[in-house]
Design a protein that fits this description.
CATH class: Alpha Beta
Largest sheet: 7 strands, mixed
Distance between the termini: 45 Å
Order of helices and strands: HEHEHEHEHEHEHE
Shape: globular
Helix content: 25-40%
Number of strands: 7
CATH superfamily: Vaccinia Virus protein VP39
Number of helices: 7
Length: 197
């Protein structure tokens, strides 16, 4: 019922006006829901292709069975359940104020590197849809991915790329995956890149 009834109520149609944020791969939805609840002035498009994650977010919004069609939903949240790259290609220039990529699949083998969202071939597309001065937040606990982010961002000129933080900055809601990584002894890194003018 959640996928059949609630999901269509949140599907992305026309782009909202005002501040527009995008989260790529929202996992269980904890970060996305925290952001829309604490930032009502911004609209968030949350992308996820995996059904378990989509159902987790929808279950948090509709905790009671039978309310799939009537439960109040955040007016500033829209969901995209296809490949985020398709959406990015369709977005107009300089429309995003913030972009979130938190704890993505590391694709640890080098032959899989082209599937990573942080990729030299992907950066011009991201730069096109981000406004000058827009923030792109990236977090990862995987050492291979962390090294890859350092390498890719050191070799580009589209974003200001300061060193990452080793503790989650203020305004970054936690995720279950982050807590799991830290419990396992992995050190997350948190980057905040800025689109150059």
């Amino acid at each position: 019922m959640l996928l059949d009834v609630t999901l269509p109520r949140l599907r992305l149609g026309d782009l909202p006006s005002g501040q527009l944020w995008l989260e790529v791969g929202f996992g269980g939805g904890e970060h996305a829901l925290a952001q829309v609840r604490s930032n009502p002035q911004a609209s968030l498009i949350a992308c996820e292709v995996f059904e378990n994650g989509i159902c987790s977010l929808l279950s948090a919004l509709v905790p009671e069975e039978g309310e799939e069609a009537s439960a109040p939903l955040p007016p500033n949240l829209r969901l995209w359940t296809d490949d985020a790259r398709i959406l990015l290609r369709d977005l107009p220039d300089a429309c995003l104020d913030k972009l979130f990529l938190l704890f993505p699949d590391p694709w640890p083998k080098m032959r899989h590197a082209k599937r990573r969202f942080v990729h030299p071939g992907q950066l011009p597309l991201l730069a096109r849809v981000l406004k000058p001065g827009a923030e792109w937040r990236v977090a990862s606990d995987d050492p291979t991915y962390q090294d890859w982010v350092r390498e890719v961002m050191a070799g580009q000129t589209l974003f200001e790329a300061p060193a990452p933080c080793t503790t989650r900055p203020h305004g970054w809601p936690p995720t279950r995956y982050e807590a799991k990584a830290m419990k396992a002894g992995r050190q997350p890194l948190y980057w905040s890149f800025t689109r150059r003018a």
